[in-house]
Amino acid sequence: MIRLNKVSKTYRTDKVETLAVKDIDLHVKRGEFVAMMGPSGCGKSTLLNLIGLLDRPGAGSIEVDGVPITRYRDKQVAKLRNQTFGFIFQSFHLIPDLRVIDNVELPLLYRSISGTERRRLARAALEKVDLGARLDHYPNQLSGGQQQRVAIARAIVGEPQVLLADEPTGNLDSKMGAEVMDILLKLNSEGTTVVMVTHDELEARRVNRIVRVFDGQLVA
Ligand SMILES: Nc1ncnc2c1ncn2[C@@H]1O[C@H](COP(=O)(O)OP(=O)(O)OP(=O)(O)O)[C@@H](O)[C@H]1O
């Protein structure tokens, strides 16, 4: 599904050059649930951003369904990203001034879908994460776990093939974190491929593959 071939990524600032990801080969297969683990600063988020086409590699190539995206223009990459991936972040990234339902509709605004259909899809996504009764709330009227579930609804509303989650339970207590994990596992069992960064060994044990990153490289 997603293949990284000898991918490297260097960040350059005025004074420092950081080789964040070094020469990585990684194949994420359709239907897998991959947990990515490793110490702080080892390159996990960089790797997730590369997999999700949010960033381009400095060297190496990335293939989506066998098609190398190296020669794609930024606009083509953006379209492929929007169609293929849903993103979930540690700090939810909801828009505070928008109601729950409007937050979830956001990714659909870039597609040619009528307002009525957008609302129907957003409602269905919120029902999937058990928040069908909170459509008109604002994010700050919800618990952290509920806010992350809204973020999951927003990530799945466009029916992406792959969900990418960067420490999705990092800001939640263990009970809310387990609820979020339950939802991700359920979506995976229904066919969505999931790649998740986590620091939690217990969470990682619930998924079918653990990828360990150290100093920008994968370790066995
Ligand atoms: N935009 C950036 N500009 C410069 N350096 C960066 C940038 N983003 C990340 N880095 C550096 O690249 C390396 C890898 O960072 P990355 O965020 O991928 O690590 P991580 O494993 O996700 O860390 P954490 O678990 O703390 O989130 C680090 O040394 C970091 O300082």
TrEMBL record:
CDD domains, alphabetized: ABC_MJ0796_LolCDE_FtsE
Alphabetized InterPro entries for the sequence: AAA+_ATPase, ABC_transporter-like_ATP-bd, ABC_transporter-like_CS, ABC_transpr_LolD-like, MacB-like_ATP-bd, P-loop_NTPase
GO cellular component entries: membrane protein complex; plasma membrane
Domain ABC transporter per the UniProt entry, residue ranges: 2-219
Keyword Transmembrane listed: yes
Coiled-coil regions listed: none
GO molecular function terms attached to this record: ATP binding; ATP hydrolysis activity; transmembrane transporter activity
Stated family: Belongs to the ABC transporter superfamily. Macrolide exporter (TC 3.A.1.122) family.
Protein name: ABC transporter ATP-binding protein
Keywords assigned by UniProt, alphabetized: Antibiotic resistance, ATP-binding, Cell membrane, Membrane, Nucleotide-binding, Transmembrane, Transmembrane helix, Transport
GO biological process: response to antibiotic
SMART domains: AAA
